[in-house]
Amino acid sequence: MTEEDAAAVLIRAAEGLFDSGVMSASGHANLSARVGREQMLITAQGAVRGLKASQLALVNLEGEVVRGSLDPIMREVVGMHTLVYRERDSAGAVIHTHSPGLLAFAMANRELPCRYEALLRFGQAEPVPVVPWAPRGSNRSVEGIARALGRSAGTMAVLLGNHGVLAFGPDPAGAGALLVALEEAARGELAAAGLGGSRDFPEGALEEVRQAMARARQ
Ligand SMILES: [Zn+2]
Description:
Blueprint: H1 3-19, E1 29-35, E2 39-43, E3 56-60, E4 65-67, H2 72-75, H3 78-87, E5 93-97, H4 100-108, H5 117-121, E6 130-131, H6 139-151, E7 157-160, E8 164-169, H7 172-193, H8 205-217
Parallel strand pairs: 6-7
Antiparallel strand pairs: 1-2, 1-5, 2-3, 3-4, 5-8, 7-8
Helix pairs in contact: 1-7, 3-6, 4-7
The structure holds zinc ion (ZN).
């Protein structure tokens, strides 16, 4: 993706998060998109409502600013974005939010199980792991995320204990759509708890969904 394309899709993805109602009251989020192999375009400030191209900075995967400038608060979060791009070749975009349903799981330090069909359709068939809390931007926090990604090879998101969520996808639209599905799953779990709890899928559900999706594409 070129820098210009990345800016346009990041702005649309940020708007989509607000339109979908998954943002927390503070409007806090950070979004990035991979540019070439070794760089990313990232939101330069903590609040992303009404995001503009001038509020994005180009940063390399060592965390060095190539163009633009980052708010001090954003320097702390760059490491968790660059880590995902380094660990997952397929990642083209990373989004971090404090979406309320997912925040409940993060605060309870509980993994989010896969019991919602939309997650199967995104290929998120394994639970979203929780990274134990450590100060934002600290080596301990980034190393915890790396360990969770290593242990959960198929996950496209991690819950950050006592903090929020980090989701990634092939591009900003895909990462945003996954984040919306994850938030729906989290809210569904919380609501189902009052009805005796959600139920696991029957055996073979992921394979059945994959086959149905392949048939639909033919
Ligand atoms: Zn945060």
